[in-house]
TrEMBL record:
Keyword presence, Transmembrane helix: yes
Highest taxon, organism lineage: Bacteria
Protein name per Swiss-Prot or TrEMBL: Uncharacterized protein
Transmembrane region(s): 24-48
Keywords, alphabetical: Membrane, Transmembrane, Transmembrane helix
């Protein structure tokens, strides 16, 4: 029984880690997109006004 409990705990731990990394990846992706769009809009406005 103890082996089964250890396997279940490892599976839960792995899934939790993967969920955390997935969330971090989405946050990073959206941060890059927002910064990229913001920089593009700023650059466009800067270019038009100068």
């Amino acid at each position: 029984m103890s082996d089964v409990n250890v396997e279940q705990f490892q599976g839960f731990s792995e899934n939790h880690y993967q969920h955390g990394m997935h969330t971090l990846a989405w946050i990073s992706l959206w941060t890059i997109i927002v910064l990229g769009v913001g920089a593009g809009v700023f650059g466009f406005i800067w270019g038009v006004t100068h």
